[in-house]
Records
---
Amino acid sequence: MELLKRLQREYTEHVPALGKLVSDVASRHLDPRNIPSTDTSFLLDVSSTMVDTLREAAINPSKVLEDSQHLASGYGKLAMNVAGKLMRRDVEPVVRPEPSDHRFDDEAWERNPLYYAIVQAYLLNSKFVQELVDDLEGLSEHNHRQLTFMSRQLINALAPTNFFVTNPEAVRRFRETWGLSVIKGLENFFQDLARSRQMLNVSMTDHGAFQVGENVAVTPGKVVYQNRLFQLIQYQPTTETVHRRPLLVVPPFINKYYIMDLTEKNSMMRWLVAQGHTVFMMSWVNPDASYWDTTFSDYVTEGVLEAMDAVEKATGEREINAIGYCVGGTLLATTLAHLKKKKQDDRIKSATFLATLLDFRDPGEIGIFINDNILKAMEAYIDRMGYYDGRLIGFSFSMLKENNLIWSFFVNNYLKGEAPLPFDLLYWNSDSTNLPAEMYKFYLRQMYVKNRLREPNALEIAGTPIDLTSITTPSTFVSTVQDHIAVWKSTYAGFQLPKGRKQFILAESGHIAGIINPPSANKYGFYLNDEEAQTPEEWFEEASRQPGSWWTHWQEWVSEFQGEEVAARIPGDGALEVIEDAPGTYVKRRIV
């Protein structure tokens, strides 16, 4: 009786809330302003690829027949295995999932003959489609990459784990909660849909578990300068003396800066301060439609250059060291080339580029979303909105790792009706940033599509032609082996552009974990090769693996450029007054 009363209370609480959510979501998503026109354009682009695929399959059917024979043979073995399962015999699986694939870890997939048959059939079909795509010849590189991507999306979307009836964990949860898991799952779904823009952004973490400035972005500091594009944070020193030359950090304007300052144990900012650097962090504004005409040049002049001037006022030092992360590194390199033309590049004594693309000839799998046809549709959408919604960017990047960043949460939140666990990294990942219309159109077309940044003097930024090959500032490039956003072999092509002293470091892991890898964690190593090779493959062949974090190696390198020791600088003691406590107000503005 008590159980029934509790269930009644639960249903009474959740069902009315669900009805209101449905109404709110419907009114929001029927608004035509929320519908990007890129959907149709991308589908047309994919349809062109499918036509080419069918043509190639018709021209060379032998591979299709061979792959079909393998599939038929696999099904024959599966039929015998299922018969063995029904007789409670141990059988060897026809095909196994990849060791990193944990979707089928539940024992029911192996114990129950029906679930066993379902997962084996799924894996056989998946293998068939993958082999079929790999064996196709005659497709352009773009079409083959697009076909590989789309086939993988289809395969993973149709996984039996993604459907309630064929997911043993979801069915078990339904029985345990007397059906309440379905109600909670629907509630989770409509809450996510209400927070989304056209494409569903599945919650990856408990958003209420984190508060910027309280349990993330907590390294002590003060905002000492701001303009319409950024706030400048000067961090509180933790050493009695500091290096004479301050350190300016240029984070990506596509994301919030605090990926470099998540918690005490993994904060790169806290670690840099502890090494005696006077650290300044740029915190970009989250723009709305009023920023529609802001340009990439504005991010150089009103962004990095104004930040450099502010650092000089705060410390009295004209010369600095600088770090740029991801597109922040692209911005830093552009600024360096601009300063070179102005004969002022001596202001930056060393530059560090973290997971940075300068040569966009191969941007990786994200390139399937970027070609002239799709870009025209994106530009029409951006012009109508005045900005590009950061949640769409986040969704695009999540599709590059769809099982980990989409489907696992889809199953947990919607099919099982469970709340996502608190995870600071995924909270940051969901805290998106919009991009101004003019800036983003320029960035996509001139860099991703035309790849003009690598061409000497092909682009004019802030009134000067940009030539990355003219840069002679000592530089370090840090990339990561498993980066799916800035593919390391492409970042190596960018490393080859500047002249002067430079080194390339290849860290283990991916775009975030490989960069934010504190020495205390002792989790990932890195690769070094002091010689520049013609190709990334040749460089890696002669590279040696180093244990531990690349941070300590970088500190040894930058020590040559940091200058002698001076008294620790307190924010507000220079020519700039304190505006507010870190992390400031710009970083707290979320997309609504």
---
Amino acid sequence: MAAAPVSLNSRWFSTLLWGNSVALSWTWGLGLFFSVQFTTQFGLFGLLTFAIPNAIGLLAFGLVTHHIARREAGSESLGRFFTTWSRPFRLVFFLYQLLAITLTIFAFIRYGWQTLGFQPWALYMPLTLLIVLAAAILFGEEFDIKRIKFSHGAMGLLMAAAIAIIIVNTMRAGTGPVEFPKLPTNDWQYWGYVVPIIIGFLVGPWLDLQQWQRAIQMHRERVSIAAAYWIGSLEFFGLLLFHGTLALWALNQGAGEWLRAGLGGYQYGHEIILRFFYEHAAAAPWTFVAYCTFLCVCILSTLDSGYVALRWFFSENIGRSKNPLLTLVPKRLLTSPIPAFVLAGFIALVAAILKLELEYFMIFYATFFVGYSALGIARCYLVSHTNAIPQVKMFCIGSLAVVICAYGYLLRYPLFMILGSLLPLASIAWLLFKPSAGEDFVSDSDELMATASDVAPSAGGVIAPASLAAHADGAAMHHLGGHFVDKWFVHSFVATYADTNSVGNVYFGMYAMWVGKTRELFFNQVMPKFNLKNTPYYILTRSFEHKFVRETKEFETVSVRIRISNYNRKFVTLEHEIYDSAQKVLGHGKQTLLFVSSADYKLIDAPAEVVTAFVGYT
């Protein structure tokens, strides 16, 4: 009787750890230093305007992924969803993560190290970059996604101690008599910032690999994603509130003297807290050390998360890649995030030398990535025509939005900043709901696979090829030999008395037989020239899994769907789903195929003709 509370306590402890990891991984360079900048511009009201949408966007991601994970049974349901859902966004995911890592490293060097003014900078700046990269790689290699919540738990305690020291010492120093000038919050300049901030942060987490990997791992561990993200978003909001109010305190102590003028006449103050504590380090050394510790924890907990997420992303996609050129490169090199981190570090170093500002990077998150995030959210609930998206159109629209917003920022035209952030949203709404929306979501391979019988009408103007048959209700048509819907091969039929048992329900063994028949029809479609008499190889079943969800009975229309979910040099994994006429899931599962020589039954690599036949259906 005492075991249940222990299990419940353990579950809640894991939820707290994951919530803390969510908060730390999202406290990257953008939220960390821009919370100070926006506070110096618009005061406490500006801080809340920045922090609230940021926290709500993080929470919304957790609540929606929690719902998605529970739409299907099993601990891998969210992982399976992400594998299919993310396929057309793979390049965007990489660019988003690369820019996030670059921005974080840049912010640390630009507003951390450069503030301290060590000379010669040409020596110390690259050495500082190497330290940052080495720490991120070391922690990323040591703590994978299963253990990162424990390392972040230790970092969270260290951060809490640092925050406590800062609060105690600043309270002793008092609030200070100095009042700093704030920009008004009732003009277009304010809304030129706020609209992009709200849009960018509300949809931002959807392209963050770190958050997806955490949500998938939580679901595997039977941890409530919603509960963890409630904890994480509240902790993250508290961190932003702490950092912003600390900036207010520093400004009231006279830190406004370190505000500097930048491009376009803007006043920048991302680093004023560090500069203030550094200038007063002799009088309050522990406050300076505590604040440096706070910054280092925020930066490191983001970079090690990025390392783990990129390694997971590369491993998943390289394993499914069909490009033969990749076989010439060692797999460990292809799946290693180190080259990406080195590239990000180099870009950050150059940007810091040129003394760019954080806002220049931020524009991409408020414009370019917004359209992809919005489309990704829509695809969670809207049934798409295929797994393709109009990449060229979206890239052009995103680039145009970046240029418009950049002009608005640099020329101080807030209306352009607003239009630049709204343009991707409007374009996605148009792409999804315009009359010819389906044409934008059809890939070239789907168009080429359409045969004349699929599109050419008969003499009487009615499509009626001999290979088509009607469902029982006469409302739809399907091929007797099966047909493709996106990447799924679908075979529909009517269950009869021969499929049932003595009770009247379909016998459990028939489901496996239906899957086997559908698999044979699928092979016949993609490899019509395969001849068992002279084949140099055989395709054998290595394993078969099926989960029964609900029963069906005779004279019910049944549809079996099967597709290639994964393959490598030796094995091919097929995924299957079975539906009734009401589109309710009867069961689902997977099977693994292997290949042997027809001469001696020795295991061989997947034949080239099999790979070629399957390549269009993965």
---
Amino acid sequence: MAGKLTEMPAWQALAAHHRGCGGANGFNLSRLFAADPQRVQTFSARCGDVLLDFSKQLLNPNTLHLLLNLARDRDMANAITHLFSGAAVNVSENRPALHTALRAQTPVPLDGHDVTTDVRRERDRMRAFVETVRGEHKITDIIHIGIGGSYLGPAFAGDALLAYAEKPLRVHYLSTVDGGVLQQLLTRLDARATLVIVATKTFTTAETLVNARAVLGWLAAQLGGEQAALAQFAAITARPEQAVSFGIPRDRVFEVWDWVGGRYSMCSAMALPLALQVGMAPFDALLAGARAADEHFKTTEFGQNIPVLLALLDVWNANFHDAASRVVLPYLSGFARFPAYLQQLEMESLGKRVTRGGAPVDYDTGLVAWGESGTNGQHAFHQLLHQGTRLVPAEFIIACRARHDYPGFHDMLLANALAQAEALMLGNAASEPHRTYPGNRPSTLLVLPEADAFHLGFLIALYEHKVYAASVILDINAFDQWGVELGKQLAGRLLPELAPHAPVGPHDASTAALIHYIRTHGRS
């Protein structure tokens, strides 16, 4: 990936092409479709029975040709090889990002050791634990305590796969340090039928440990002491000794590793609450789907490579069409949390302002990812998508089949998704200005045959690889997140200052005034 991105011939060719077309106005989608009846075939890609239709994006065949040149000039093929081989792609922390090893079926060496043996060991332990808990029928509820990558993926996947579960367990996620949420949850649960999972890679995450101690206190009071309470705890961590020091039995501590980032850990033991909720068979299918996406990313030429194409579209929209965000619209049952899951995956990975070598960038990196599931967004924010002043590319995710018994419902859902994409593209002229839709708003449709466990795993890995492909093009590190550290450090310093009469350290005038106001008004 030698050379500054904006000085590369491929980038300059794209800039000249954009200027030559007259900017966004030069990519009139209605005219492009009228001029090319085969446009959908040109601007689509498939992997098995998964379809990506990006024909409604603001680009023409020359645009696509130049974007693919950019991917080649950024040495995308070698970058993909480095990811799967265990190279230190996380340059700021000098370590690999081997989340693909979590579902690999062939050896993955790291420092002379095949890490897949560790993965299989933990998965076998996880399988035995899941089968025991679900087989005994004593546990009805699980409190999963974690935040970020320890929470967002399993919570999203659990909702998405609930329709595929036999006798699902109830999983309650505790992430925020909001005592009101904790209080409301604990009043609803039977302590003797509750399993608690503490998920923290370092076992030092402040929010997670505060919640864990509070839940331990509740269980101890209900069950007659800490020893009895801790017997109903399990942990997921890269620091097993820390979990054991907390009091959790070693045989209930499941390991993850430093070579797996939290937001890339869905195929590891971090998915324990998901496997407990829906069973190991759906989790195994999820792993198989993720492997299929890995193979697609590794072996498919870039013009049909879905992660590479999605990454190129984001770079094109952000840097040449001035898009600041991308809306994700899953018209799928159980996908309400998917936009939040993608927010962490994409915005922690791509929200960077320096290159892999530490130089400031002079181009736009990560887009803001946001969205809502189903038709809910149509009655909330689609007004801005259709008639607002900012260009917001849309990403629709749909499935041809649904798993429920209500005839007509799924067709209605699909009709709404297709109609929204068509309306964004075509617009509608009206005699009254406030009724006019300008149209020419770009969108992509990702079509699954069904949102089952296999295709959910495929989708998760697809977006993991899309993020990595974007980071390769943008020359940034997708696997660190230093931007989250400063707020943690300041919060630790501020916390004791909120106590009555505690000395207040040096702060800006606003923060100092707020501390004083809270101390004055926050306690009766």
